[in-house]
Every structure is written in C-alpha cells, then in structure tokens.
Amino acid sequence: MSDLMKLTLAGARDALRAGETTAVELTEASLAAVAASKPLNAFVHDTSEIARSQAKAADARIQAGDAPDMCGLPIGMKDLFCTKGVATQAASAILDGFKPKYESTVSQKLFDAGAVMVGKLNMDEFAMGSSNETSVYGNAVNPWKVDERDLTPGGSSGGSAAAVAAETCLAATGTDTGGSIRQPAAFTGITGIKPTYGRCSRWGIVAFASSLDQAGPITKDVRDAAIMLEAMCGFDAKDSTSMNLPVPNFEAALTGDIRGKTIGIPKEYRVEGMPDALETLWSEGRQMLRDAGAIVKDISLPHTKYALPAYYVIAPAEASSNLARYDGVRFGHRAKLEAGDGITEMYEKTRAEGFGAEVQRRVMVGTYVLSAGFYDAYYNRARRVRALIKKDFDDVFATGVDAILTPSTPSAAFGLGEMADADPVQMYLFDVFTVTVNLAGLPGISVPAGLDSKGLPLGLQLIGRPWKEGDLLNTAFALENALGFNAKPNQWWR
Amino acid sequence: MSIDTKTAGRVAKLARIKVEEADLPALAQEFTNILGFIEQLNEVDVEGVEPMTSVTPQRLYCRNDAVTDGDQQAAVLANAPDAREGFFAVPMVVE
Lengths: 494, 95
Description:
heterodimer, A: about 500 residues, alpha/beta, about 35% helix, about 15% strand, B: about 100 residues, mainly alpha, two-stranded antiparallel sheet, 3 helices
C-alpha cells in the first residue's frame, strides 16, 4: 500500500485511468501514511470522512470516463483555506472553533476537479513566519533529519511541505505572501510554485496581506506543479483582483525545450555568508541551462536590498487592517470578561489572548506605520520603493530576459528553536530571495537542486514574466531534468 | 528612531491589543529594532515615483449593482461566540 504514496500526481492519475488502482485505494494509503506521520505534526484537522466519500465519488467519475487530471488524487489542504464545515483556524487561537459555512474558491476548484482532501495542514499563525514555529498547533517538523535535532520544514506552508516530502499525500495547497510556498519547498527537497498575482482567486483564503497573497501548489515535481496549478487557477468574480484570463494547459507546455530562451542571473542575489554548496549549485544550474540551449546573462536588480524592509512595512500594514476583523464578535474566540468590562476591553482581551506573539508584533507594527504622522514616512515610502522594485524586473524583462535564476533561500533548514532568541529581523532574512517576487507580483518556482554539506536539501528559484507560468514551468522542467535530484528523507518518523 | 514605552502603549491601544504595563519596555525595544531595519528605505531616491496601488495593470472592475446573495442569517451567525435572537451580542455600548 505504501508504494502508492511514492507516486507523483501524474503517475497516480495515469494509474487510475489505466485501472491499476482506485481512488479509494490511494486514499486509504494516504490516510494510513497520515496516521503514521504524527511525529511530523503536519496534519492538524482530520478530514478522513470527507476523503473517503470524495474518493468513492472520484472512482465513479473515473469509471464513467469523466475524470479531470486531479480526480481521485489525495492532497492536503493548508489550514488557511476555508473549507465548508471543517475547522479552519489559520493556525491561530483566535479562530478556535471556526467552521466556515462556505468553501474557498481554490479548494472548491480542486474538489470540482475530483481531488480528495485527506486533512488540513499545519502552518505559521496567519501565515506569518518562516519556520512554522508560530502555529497554535505547535511546530511542524521537517522529514529531513541529519542529527538528533528536529529541523524546521520552513514556513509558512510548513505542514504542506512536510506532508508532501514525507509522502503522506501526493501534493498540497500552499499560500505565498513573501516566500511561504517556495521556502518550505526548498527546505524539504520538493517543488513549489507561486503564480502571478491574480491567477488564483483569494476568495475564502484567510487574508494576511491582500496585495501580496497568492495560492499555489506544493508538489513532488514540476509536472505535478503544472497539473495542480492549472486546477487551482482561474477568474473568480468574487475576488476583484483575480485576472480574467484563460488558464492555459500548463502540462502541455512542458516540452523541456528551452533553446534560445534568455536566463538572467542577478548579481544582487549573491549574499554574504551563503554556503559554498549553494553557490556551487547556483553556478551548476546556470551551466545546465546553458547546456540546454539557453542564453545565460548577468543582470542587475538594483533595488533588491530594499525589498525586505519594504515588505516589512507593506505586509504588516495590510495585516493590521485585515486582522481588525478578529474582534470576538462574529467568529472564533472571545475572551472571558469581568464585571464592568465594556466592548473595548472585550476587543483588547480577545486579541491579546487570541493572537500569538509574532502576529501581535506585526499587527502593531502595521498599526504604527499606518498611524497619523507616519503614513507618508513609512507606508507611502514603502509603496514607492515597491514600484521601483517592480520596475527593476520590468526593465530586465524588456531586455528580452525570459526567466531569472536565483537560490530559493540563503541556507538549508535550521533546527526548530534555534532562532528563538534571535531578533525577529534575523528570521525575516530567510525571505530575502523570495519576497521581491511577491512585491513585483511575478510567478516564481522553487525546484530541489541538491544537498548541502550536511545532507540537507537546497533549492533553486526561477522567476518568470507575469502570466507566463507555462513558460516558467517549462524552464523549471528543463532545469529539473538536468539536476536529476531524487534524494528522499529516511522515514524515521514511522 | 527609538520608540518609547508611551508610544508602544499607544500603538497597542490603537491595535486593540491588551499589553501589560510590564511588557511595554520589551515591546518598545522590538519596535525600535524593526523600525531601524525599515529605515533603510530612507536611502532610496523616490522622487517622482508614485506609490504602487496595484501590482497588475488591471483596474478594479465594477460588477452590476444587483443583489446576488441573501437570506443567510443563520449561516452568518453560526460561528458567533454569542448570538441571540438573530443578532450578534456584545457588551452594552450605549447606556
């Protein structure tokens, strides 16, 4: 049974269509793997009943010959997606007990395509974090382990990455505001893509920073990323920032032919203290793309250095506004009040009890940068710098660059708890290569590239032109073929 | 810029998050560190650059001004910590 979980989405799809297995068998294998993965703390809400009924329905569709690509494939769902009748907490105590009466557009699209939801996945609280250590459910743990330490799977989609890397489900949904799909994918040796801002509907996804948030898949390889992304994308009248564009067949774009494509290498992405192994992989990646027929050239994105500080104004500002809705009135937790407490005390106590330390910090920083007297100095300045960061990319694409190759993260996964005493700013630095992509609204994908000196996975990131996910996936596919990464973690948790 | 405890307290109040008096100095120090990081933005020449309002060239579109949903009172109230007689219940706000 456990061999079924070694399949990719594409492999399982083909096996289902050939009648070699059934959605029910796949789902049972996944649920068994989920049950055996408790030490990873990746799954936080059980949806096995839903999974079993979805699997039966999927088998009927496959039998009837009406089976989209995702039909019958067991996936995990990040806790940020509202799922009808199923606990949805964004890993926060403030949403304790919340069961949405509606389904997010992305999860609905996946269900319409026949996907089977085997559980809800751990994450950083409200997607604010790079290590999955801010979750009310406790840390998710990286399936990769090289010594006695438990390592972070990254964040915020840490549960999604851990679950897929551990082969408990075939793929998972993630969301990415500053790198939350690509960084955990890199830390766990798998693939994750954030599409162009506006490709996936944000409706029904618990909001963090609305101008940056995008959903995307975390998968075992590039082909799977193409298949699942296609099922998640598409115009939605319920999200006013969703783009009314046709969704191409992304899998059909995977020819592996990148002859004549131009790949840019940004000099600003070489940072101090980058491990040698990462430097080597990056330069091997360049050579591989050149060998595949691409033109590789040096480029400059001069405002890169200012992306993180701009992000840490804009994202908290939007978060402080979005999270104002958690007031103990309409959903989730309400603090126990004392005699004489009025509505202000109710708000203040509820939010102090319900939000964790990092969320409180960001809400307050956001409140500060938006407050009278500071709005221009911080918020408007950050939005101007954001415009310059986007212009850096526009200028480079205008010179004919098709994609940009960078490392995904400045290092491999670190130990859980190792950053506990560090300044919050130190943790923010893990997003240095990914956050520019969100600020510019571009598609970005992380593919596993190799192992560092300790044996932990490292990823390379490709950044594409807006709305050209098919082209980006194809370049990633060529790079994946050349890299030939196939290492897997030992299943120590079983 | 250094944030003092009074400013930290005011921000907590604006954000409607209760912070104990004793925790304000540590909070003020965190703000100071984060804002120190953010202040790098002052190095950038932003003269003549418009603040970004939308990352995609798309303007927000208008839908038809029509009722598209409704009769959801039970669903809307279902997750409320305290709902009574079809309303959200909160502590008294008007004497």
